[in-house]
Amino acid sequence: MIRSIIVDDEPKSRNLLVRSLKDFCPKVDVVGTAESVDTASKLIEKLKPDLVFLDIEMPEKSGLHLLENNSNHKFHSIIISAYERYAVNAIKHQVLDYLLKPLNIDELVNAVNKVPPKAVAITESDKLLQLIEKFPASSEKKHKPIAIQTTNGQDFIFIQHIMYCQADGNCTWFYLNNGQKLISSKNLGTYEKILPQNYEQDEHCFYRVHHSALVNLHYITRFNNKENYVIMKNGTQINVAQRRKSTFQRILRQSCIT
User: Fold this and answer.
1) CA–CA distances in Å: residue 191 to residues 90, 93, 127, 219
2) Nearest to 216 by CA among 171, 161, 137
């Protein structure tokens, strides 16, 4: 069983979630509820739950405050909020999922299914990390996946699948060649250092054309050097900073067959 607590200042919301979990998520055992962050902190200390269902906007302190101040306790969290605007901050706290009110049962079930079995989760994660470490640390970085921290945990993606990255404050959006996009809690500068930038050695070479954009040269279909923008394979237009233009043009010339 997954021992859980519910944190929400609205009694109706707490009761609805208790009933929904009982009817549709039988493996979840609700061992307590709280109407405030302070009450929830005491419950977490006492009950040591596996999972916390957490509202964001509450009187006095927000749900994010609970996550920030209970990082020493190992529990998973699922946000259930009436507002989308906290999603990026929630990602930084590695929440399992971010659900919007009114609650959708299918989304609730999917979110609960993301809770890893206690023993298996650690074992499988360690195995995967060990496997990744076995990849050769050579110039063939395109064959080595990178770990992207998302709301669902960690996604491991191969470099050749990344079309471009865009900054969103201290977070980074990854746009993949299959149309999928992921958001990481790390900033764009972190990935600028990780992704390959040697066009002579890597087919999938990245260049930071703008302070907010890092592009894979392999997926550029057009460069407008008068208006300073590139068109990516998916049709997205990305601006090229004037101060980066000359270096970018030189790299494009040297990385293409002429």
Assistant:
1) 20, 19, 24, 18
2) 161
> Do 73 and 45 meet the contact criterion of CB atoms below 8 Å apart?
yes
Give the number of other Cβ atoms within 10 Å of residue 44's Cβ.
Answer: 21
What kind of fold does domain 137-255 have according to CATH?
Answer: OB fold (Dihydrolipoamide Acetyltransferase, E2P) (2.40.50)
What residue type is assigned to position 95 of the chain?
A: V
Of 182, 199, 93, nearest to 145 by C-alpha is: 182
Sheet holding 97-100, edge to edge: 28-34, 2-7, 51-54, 76-81, 97-100
Specify the CATH class of 2-115 in words. Answer: alpha beta
Domain boundaries, the chain: 2-115, 137-255
Q: Which residue has the tokens 């040297």?
A: 254
8 Å CB contact between 5 and 32? yes
Q: Encode the chain (258 residues) as per-residue pLDDT tens digits.
A: 899 999 999 999 999 999 999 999 999 999 999 999 999 999 999 999 999 999 998 888 888 888 887 766 688 999 999 888 777 776 667 788 889 899 999 999 999 998 887 633 444 444 444 444 444 443 444 446 787 876 656 778 888 899 999 998 888 999 999 888 888 888 899 899 888 876 655 567 899 999 999 999 999 999 998 999 999 999 999 999 999 999 898 888 876 644
